[in-house]
Design goal:
Lipocalin; 8 strands; 169 residues
C-alpha cells in the first residue's frame, strides 16, 4: 500500500514530494488521521500518543530524511525512517499503560520498554504537540504532531489528502 501511495503522490506531485514519507504512514492511519478535530491534550493526556503521526521534522525537500512514528489505538504501530525516494519501516505491536509503552517489533521480535510524555508546544511550527520518548528503540527522543487531526490535510502540500485517500482505498 505504501508503494501505491508513493506512486500516486509522485504522479500528482512529481516535484513536490515533500511529505511522501509522512503520507505513507498516513495511508496506514488514513481513517483516523483525517477524522474531525481532536481536542488538544493536556500534558497528562497519555492517550494523545494514539492515532496520530509523530515526525521528528517537517521535510524540507523530497530528499530530506525524517523519522515517523504511528501508534494506532488497536495496538499496532509503525516506525518509518527515510525520504520520499527511500524509506524503511518496522511494524510493531504495543501495549500502553498510562505513559509507559511495551513494544515488540515483529520482524526481529525485539522488545522495548519506554516512557513518554505528550505536551502542547510551539517550538517547531506548524506542529503544536511535542512527544518526548525517554529511551527510544529507534530514532530521536523528540517528535512533533498536530492536536487537530485535520491539520495534516491543511499543513501538507495541497491535494495530498485526496492522494492519500485514493491510495488507501
Amino acid at each position: 500500500m505504501a508503494l501505491r501511495l508513493l506512486r500516486a503522490i509522485y504522479r500528482t506531485y512529481p516535484r513536490a514530494c515533500l511529505a511522501a514519507l509522512a503520507a505513507a504512514s498516513l495511508a496506514i492511519a488514513a481513517p483516523l488521521a483525517f477524522g474531525g478535530p481532536d481536542p488538544a491534550p493536556s500534558a497528562a493526556g497519555s492517550h494523545a500518543i494514539l492515532d496520530r503521526l509523530w515526525l521528528d521534522a517537517y521535510p524540507e525537500d523530497e530528499r530530506s530524511e525524517i523519522s515517523v512514528w504511528v501508534w494506532l489505538s488497536n495496538g499496532v504501530g509503525v516506525y518509518q525512517r527515510g525520504s520520499a525516494y527511500r524509506a524503511s519501516f518496522d511494524v510493531f505491536a504495543f501495549e500502553r499503560d498510562g505513559e509507559s509503552l511495551e513494544m515488540t517489533f515483529l520482524q526481529d521480535e525485539e522488545n522495548s520498554s519506554t516512557r513518554f510524555q505528550v505536551s502542547a508546544c510551539d517550538e517547531r511550527p506548524p506542529f503544536d504537540l511535542c512527544l518526548v520518548i525517554e529511551r527510544p528503540a529507534r530514532g530521536a527522543h523528540r517528535y512533533y504532531g498536530f492536536s487537530d487531526q485535520s491539520a495534516y490535510a491543511r499543513e501538507l502540500p495541497e491535494g495530498l489528502e485526496e492522494s492519500v485517500r485514493a491510495a488507501a482505498r
